[in-house]
Structures are given as structure tokens and as C-alpha cells.
Amino acid sequence: MMRKNQIYCLFSSRIKCALRGNSSWRRKRSSRGLDGLNVQRCYSTESTDLKEYKFPIERIRNFSIVAHVDHGKSTLADRLLEMTGAIRTNSGAQVLDKLQVEKERGITVKAQTVSLKYNYKGEEYMLNLIDTPGHVDFASEVHRSLSACQGVILVVDANDGVQAQTVANFYLAFGKDLVIIPTINKIDLKNANPERVVKELHSLFDIEEKDVIKISAKMGLNVDKVLEAVVEKIPPPQVDRDKPFRGLIFDSWYDKYRGAISLIYLAEGSLSTKQHIISIHTGKSYEIKELIILRPEEEHVKTLYAGQVGCIACNMRSSADAHIGDTIHLKNMPVEPLIGFNPAKAMVFAGIYPMDQSQHLSLRNAIERLVLNDSAVSLSIETSPALGLGWRLGFLGLLHMEVFCQRLEQEHGASPIITAPSVTYKAKIIGKQNIKDHGSDEITFNNPAHFPNPQIVTEFMEPMVWGTIITPTKYLGPVMSLCLEKRGVEQSTKHIDDNRIILQFILPLSEIIIDFHDGLKSLSSGYASFDYEDHGYVATNLVKLSVLLNGLSINELSTIVHTMRAKEVAKHMAKKLLEIIPRQQFLVAIQVSVGAKILAREDLKPYRKDVTSRLKSGGDVQRRRKLLQQQAEGKKKLRMVGNISLPRETFIEVLKR
After folding, report:
1. 544-655: CATH homologous superfamily?
2. Where along this sequence does the record place binding of GTP (predicted)?
3. pLDDT (tens digit, 9 = 90+) per residue, 65-102?
4. Quick one: which of 390, 395, 399, 350 has its CA closest to 370?
5. Is 68 annotated as a binding residue?
6. Residue 117 labelled as part of a binding site
7. 151 assigned to a ligand binding site
């Protein structure tokens, strides 16, 4: 029941709107009351308070900050926000990292946009900044962000130097003909060596020393030179405001009350509230309810103009409506679609199931909301005899999957069961009836439960990646050994300087998604970095490892491995399950097999109660044997009917080293 003061707050806000002459009001975001009830705030779409941000095209700059993980992108973004007055000084670390998972892990997961006002030589500029993630699993965020930019700030750590993701980001921006502003960060550190990093930039990218800006984002040293370089070097957007409106959706997220919010780049014309737009991808029409500029807090405007980056809210209720890469235009004014970008290709797949089927609906809603916020995730329905109805989700990597599941728990209170990750394989099959049943002589599968019968398969194929590793020279031996252990094939080796070397390998994707990155960091004391990209499929020999608990096959723990590693992985899985599965009142036999052949076995011993403890002075030997025999028979019966409870983490941990 609502308290009197809450009822007063709820209605008094509406009265204030009416007294200001606003005839229409509606709900915005909710602020939670003291007792947990939602008290709604209101505003008017007809308010005269809507701000105007109409800058000449020549005074607009759109740019991104790109770098390897932990090279200082978000810290630099904080300083730029402070220097342009968007936030107050010392307002907190990583202002644009808003997700709880980002604060806990200390990494950027979601690209964030903010519009800054900057006064340069007496003229005011609009700088649209996009802060991007640095981990390879979130490279699609960088790819989308660059579609709305004309330049990038490439940040390199003065201590660590050029890393694998630095190389990937440079060539991504270079391939899009964007202006690149090289920036060396953390020059205030004790072990900083900016001169060495300058040589690396020249050796790898032919960047001259005079073009490099040396800064300390944490201390604010020389950050003003970065802002000046953005204005002087990055060109204004090539747009036309006299043509009909045409915009590109390059990001979106879900709001509880307003539906899907789309982040758009305006390539032509202008867009105002109450106008009707049409999506080329879906063909649906929407009325513009709100236009928003992020500074970084939302500021509502009446009109957005070509060259700007802003948000639109138009009551998109379905996650499929806000299609990333879609072109939108005004109703009855058709246009040619803009050149978008290929959708992110999922590389790692895992099953997600509710702990109890009664939680299926709530988990489905949570997954749909997060999939809208993260368009790189693919989604399909899946069923399991043991776990019931669930979903098969595709991710860009293992970290991407872990972050997604962590957001499910933190933002939606869901506690799903996650199966072991796998990749997409291909198989060529024989037999007219088999080809007719599958509709083709080539089938794809990413679930071990769908592993085809080897008798009808002529050839298996697995996905490969082109991996780039940058490591100190003294760790070259262990890193090479790790790559060869993972069935890698060396392609090239190049010295960056006297102390560091860049390696390129073709590696099986299945070998690197679980523990390759952790192993690489461990062998190199954290100094080596790794980046990869898709490299097609090659023929291989595969087998399916099945896990049996007391003779019962657990499909959710099955995995697909290369033939040469089957025995090694089987022994590892059996030992890992022995550590993870809780002890029971009965013996649990853990077996890993290929078909009918058992490759590894471990026995999980049961809890044991001393049933002879009540016998006085040891008791008669026959009495002792009788009690022990009764106990053994009881445990044997219990083993036949007992259920084995598996922890949620089992499905991923079993494959980790």
C-alpha cells in the first residue's frame, strides 16, 4: 500500500506540470521510493525547455577512442568530459562505464557515446565521442562505433607499448580511411618509456614522432593537446542537411518504460519530434516521441541535424525492431539504404537453462532484453532431457559469454545453468537418404548432442582463426610451445624491437576459447597479448566425448575434441568432475568415453557412517559383518535411485585447466 507522502509526490509532480502550462505529460524513468514502490517522474514533450544543438557542419567532430585493454581509454574519456565541462572535476573513475559488471571487472564492455561542447579559438564545437571496449571479444562494438566516426584516438600504454589489439584497432580504422591520432598514455609512470613506444609505432605503422601526442590521462597532462588535435586533424562529417532525413542505427538498448532506444548517426537531413519514420529493414512506421543528446546525462532536444549522433525513442516494443545497421527515413520520403556493416558472427556457443522450469518465462524475458542491448549474441531455442526447455546462445568469445551471464544475474536477478561452450563444426555426409533427411550433403552443428554418426560422415571440418601474439622475446619459447600444443601452425615472426616480437599463427578456434588466453598470460607473466580473427574451415578428425555418471550419459557435459587429444581431455574431465561434484551418500562412478570405449574413470567415494560404533567393546565379529553388509546393500539401492546434484559452474569449469 502506498504511503500518503508517496501519493502526494506522485500527484504533485503532475500538478506542477499542469501549472507550467504543459497539457500533456507522460512517464519517464522511475525512481524507487523508500519502501520499494515505483514513483514516476513526468515531463512534457511540448515543453519550451527543450534545448537546441544546431552546430554548423564544419564545427562537428565525430571520433572514437580505441586501444588495447587497460591502456587508459576510459580514463582519457573522463578527462575530456571534465575539460569540456560535461562533468565536474573528480566526479569518479570511468564515468562512461555504467554497468556493474564493468565496474567490478575494470573493463569496458559496452561502447558509450557522449556529446561535448568545446570552445576552440573563440568558436564552439560539438565533439561526439564514443568510448569503445578493448578486449577482442567486444571487437564488434568497435566496428559499429567506427561507422559513425571520421577519426579515432589510438591510445598506447607508455609502459606496455603496442599490443595485439592495438594492431587490430589500427588496421580497422586504417581500412575505413579514418584519421588516426596516435597518443601515448601513462607517461607519468615510473617505468614509462615513451621513446621506445614511438619507435614501435614507426616500425609497425610508419607513424612519425611529430604526430604522436604524449599524455597522462590520470594527471591530465597534455590532454588539452588531444582536444586540439581532434578539432584540427579530424575532418567534419560529409553530410547534406538539405536532403530528406536518412540515418543509421549503430547501437540500441532497452528501457523499461520507453521500449527500445536507438542510437543513430544522421547522414542527411534533420529529424524532429512527432515526425514519422520508417525502418528499411522491418518496413514498420514509428512516431518520434523523444530525441536525446547524451552529455553524458540525457538532454531532450526538439531536432537532430545531419552530422550529429543522438538517440531516438519511438515506442519500439520488440527487440527485433531496433536492428543494428538498419537505415531509417521519413514516412513517404524513401531513400537508398546507407552502407551498414556485416552483423557480428558468433563463434562460441553454449546452452542456457533455468534452474527450475517455473523460472522459464522470467529468464526468457531477461535474455531478450539483454540480446537487444547486445546484438552480437545469437539466440535459438533448445531442449534437453535433463535440463528441460532452454536456449542455445552464440557469443564472440568466452569473456563475452561470462559477462553476458553475469549481467543476467546482476541486472535481472536470473540464475541460469550454463553448459560447456563449443564452436560450430561442419561435416560432409554420404548416403542419399541421409542427404535427403538433412537437406544437404554438408551439415553444421555446435551442440555435442547433435554430433552426427561417424559412419555416415566422410569428412569433419573445424573453424580456424588467424591469431596475432605480441610477447617479450624472453618468453618466446614457452609461447611457441603453447601455440604448438594447441595445434597451431606458425605463419610469420617479426621483431618489433630488441625486446619484443610479434607472432602470427593459424589456430583451431576450439583450442583457444577456453583457457588459451589465461595460459598465455601465465606463461608470459602477463606481458603477452593476443588477438584473433576468423580464418575459415579446414578438414580435421573429431570425436565426441561423453560423460557418464553411474552409467547415465549426461549430454550437457559432452564435448567435441580432436582425436589426438581425446585421451588427455578425457582424463582431465574425469579428474575435474571428481573435484567439482559434491560427495553423495553412495558411490558415484565418473566415466568419460568415446562411443563404447571408456577412456577415463574416477570414483567419487560416498560419505560413510560408522554403523558399528554402538557395539560395546567392539562386539561380535558376526554382528559387525551383518551391520556392514546391511549398510552396503542400502547404499547399493540408493545408488540405483539417487539423483546426483551438479553445481551450476560444472559445465564450464570441467573444461578449464
Report:
1. Elongation factor 4, C-terminal domain (3.30.70.2570)
2. 67-74, 131-135, 185-188
3. 998 888 888 889 888 988 888 887 766 666 666 666 66
4. 395
5. yes
6. no
7. no
